[in-house]
Amino acid sequence: MSYAWFPGCRIPFHLPDYGRESLAVLAALGVRPAETEFNCCGYPVRHQSLFASALSAARAMAVAGRAGLDILTPCKCCFGHLRFAQTVLAERPDLMAAVADALRPEGLRYVPELTVTHLLQVLDRDIGSTALRAAVSAPMAGLRVAAHYGCHALRPSQTTRFDDPQAPTIFEDLLAAAGGVPVSWTLRLECCGQPLAGKNDRLSLALAASKHESALQAGADVLVTACTYCQMQLGAAALSCALPSVQAASGPRPGPPIAVVHVSRLLGAAMGLWPLGAMTAPRPDTG
Amino acid sequence: MTVRADHFPGAFMSLFSAILWACLAVCLCGAAWRMARWLAPDRSLAVPGLPPSAALRYLARSLSWRDALAAAPRLAKAFFIDILLQGHLLRKGSLWRWLMHFTLFAGFSGLVFFHALESFVSRPLFAGYEPTLDPWQFLRNAFGAMVACGLCIALCRRIFLRDMRRTSRFEDFFTLGVISCLIASGFCLEAAKIVSPAAFERMTADYLPAPDADDLTALRVYWAAAYGMAFPVQTPPPGPASPEVYEKGRDIAEMSCIPCHSPPRSAFVSAPLSRLFAPAGAGLVDGLRWLHVLVCLFALAWLPFGKLFHILSTPAGILLRGLDPGRDAAAPPAAAPLSRAVGLDACTNCGVCSRHCSVLPAYLALGTAEILPSEKLASMRRLAGKSGRLTPAALAAFSEGGFVCTECMRCTVVCPSRINLQDLWLVSKREAARLGYPELAVRLRTLGPDVWERLARTGTRAKRTLAASPSLLDNPETFAHCVQCSVCTGVCPIFRLPDIPATEIDVSPHQLMNLVRMGLADTALSANFLWNCTTCYKCQEHCPQGVRVADVLYELRNLAHARVEAAARDGLLDDAGPVAADSGGRP
Prior knowledge:
The complex is a heterodimer. The model of chain A is unreliable at 237-250 (pLDDT under 50). In chain A, the strands form 2 sheets. Chain A has a 4-stranded parallel β-sheet with strand order 2-1-3-4. A 4-stranded parallel β-sheet of chain A has the order 6-5-7-8, sandwiched between helices. Chain A is of the alpha/beta class. In chain A, 47% of the residues lie in helices and 9% in strands. The termini of chain A are far apart. In chain A, helix 2 runs parallel beside helix 13 (263-270) and helix 3 packs across helix 5 (93-103). Chain B is an all-alpha fold. Chain B has 33 helices and no strands. Chain B has helices spanning 10-39, 55-62, 65-84, 87-91, 95-116, 122-125, 136-160, 162-167, 170-194, 197-207, 213-227, 243-257, 270-277, 285-302, 310-320, 325-330, 336-346, 352-356, 360-366, 373-386, 392-404, 410-414, 421-434, 440-444, 449-458, 477-480, 487-491, 493-496, 509-517, 521-525, 528-532, 538-542, 549-569. In chain B, helix 1 crosses helix 17 and helix 21 (392-404) crosses helix 23 (421-434). Chain B is elongated. The model of chain B is unreliable at 462-467 and 575-587 (pLDDT under 50). Chains A and B meet through helix 1, helix 3, helix 5, helix 7 and helix 10 of A and helix 16, helix 19, helix 23, helix 24 and helix 28 of B.
């Protein structure tokens, strides 16, 4: 299967490491997605205009379809929204017609049969945990990892078909294959709070803090994400300039109380591509 | 601008000098005014906590001689490759764009230095320089042809490329028009002079000592036959010229003309053009001379006030651009206001940013021009010029455009003028919020139910949003199975947070569903909770009755945006936004 790499808008400026390291991990496992210029998936304008967001998604899929490629993205919001757009375009002929009209002047055609795949699915399905285990050269012995699922990949499950929405295992399986010890934590399927960033910072930060606390309570050494937005939100790599009101009110955001890394950083470290940072080393068991 | 005194009557020269000095003064004052705004940038471009006016001082202080030495090779390379050869236009992959701009730039530079400034450049540097001698006569035509070539490509791109047409403005065509007039009048002037009996007579009077009528006739015959000159019909004698007359003409020409006057055929544009002009065109010399000179002087005077100013601002911006624009945007250096002010002036409205913009489809769907980077930059330039005195509608559009931007950095990567657009967009969001126009969702959440009812009553549904017209809200089936079991509220992440003010959760998800079921969607739009939903879809996933709770919440938000957009289009928004000050919260 040939993929087009759909990093999503937030990678180049906000999280370049996630993009670079994901591609490095994929390349080490033999997957080399084609780099194509895409527009925004449309997720950020979904609450403003369904038409704008569906058109954005359809255009991105048309661009991939024109090259005969399927879409591979490391962002769960891009993934979820592209899948959502596929469903809603299939459900609503009026929307489909308006989208087709808007794409026609550019000579683009929406490709309904194109598949949208998340990074975790490629690792799990195309590569498989056996091959991943074989590629691991420096297992993260005993590192207790809290896998953060991300809402928009899991739900609405009828649209995203990512994993069991109530009891997903795909993320933990992959981390276990890389030598991590997944912990069970209360808020693992809950929202990181990013959708409210800049809109209601108080709630947004409270949601993020509750996730950190839950992971710490479960004894995790590190909280692992597989979504650009979740990583920005939980990792405090989030640039304070992305939240003008927070910056103006209270200065830069404090760092998170637990190390938060994206999945490719951990997998790459386990595969010996780069060292595991000190932040993510297993902490001594305090009992 | 040099106009050789010996070619022109005295009255022309004195009037010309007066206009020249006036235009030069306007040009210099205008350029000084614009550059002063670089050194004392508007406060909208400030780095928080630092006065913008001190940007230059910060820049100077941050540079040590060691830094300057280290940066010198890089700056020299940028100067030669990016500014002189304009490699930055080629680097992002369009040969036509480079060809268009390089021919314009090289041709125009050639004309300015060797033709307009001939008294200061050509004459002192090249012994025996005469504008009528080759290679100068040929070069003048070659430079002019290069500019014409660039103009044609530029015009075709602006007219025929859909993406460029979208962002082209009057000023772009006006600028192309001014340069076209300048080049066309130059070619026509030269063509008219070639066939001008007056010019011929003046030259023979100057360079041919005591000619008789036969000499002149022979000379005319020779020039007409050998160089294809087109004299007005009545001047040469009727009938075919004899070889003797031709030979005599050649002798005179070789002795008196050729040393300072190359055959006109090397003026490969003007000479053929002159044949179209003959014979009537000869009388146009004076008119064309005025036209050419006035267009040149107008361009000179207008230079600091239009996009032609990029001749200065774009090179300045290229040299000021940091090595890592992403880092400079994330943590702006103290000298950032200077780069921002130069960046705003360096835009040539080439439209490349808008063509590659990640949110171009959002623009196509929503129609707010300010979503496109090139248009947003124009708004920002107005904002920085007037310190926030944009109309509320312009500010609202500026804010919408700013917040639709996903900060993907692509425009910064592709910008041929190498403006740090990423940095400007982060500033644009901050400024929009400071001026009372934060993200639209933040403004909408403050509107009360009365406002929503009024907008619902008076506003028409906008055409563009028709495709997104609510389908779940209008369909009674959506809520038919809701039994108000409150599972949606039970799983909502907002409701499990400790210490959340009651106003943030004024309505719970199941109550919201009930409101919409009862046809009270407008009341639902004013619920704080609607705007606090994180769209995590837990409610919808867990609903035992299969109600699409989160999809309904999305549709309600779409409806709110559509109502306000429609009201804005219908002119129902007053100065304070979608409401009068006494009838709801401030938007």
